[in-house]
Design goal:
83 residues; 0% strand
Length: 83
């Protein structure tokens, strides 16, 4: 069996799985993980909405900064051209 990379503990694990002793434990864990999964999805959805709001706000700020920069650029070029 070792030549095929099969060890006694692996075979024993498979036997336990076949008898269902571990399958029932896995089924119980899955029920809990489904609820945890839903909670995580809800948390991530809330986080996504917050980040989208922050993104919109940041985009508005960037637009304002561009306009201010353009205005200041116009003012500095007008001041530089005065004799």
């Amino acid at each position: 069996m070792r030549r095929e990379n099969l060890y006694a503990n692996t075979v024993n694990k498979w036997r336990r799985q076949l008898t269902g002793s571990e399958l029932s434990v896995q089924a119980k864990k899955k029920v809990g993980s489904d609820e945890e999964f839903r909670k995580q999805v809800q948390r991530l959805e809330r986080e996504k909405q917050q980040l989208q709001r922050k993104l919109v706000e940041a985009e508005k700020i960037i637009e304002i900064q561009k306009k201010v920069s353009e205005l200041l650029g116009v003012l500095t070029t007008n001041e530089g051209s005065t004799p």
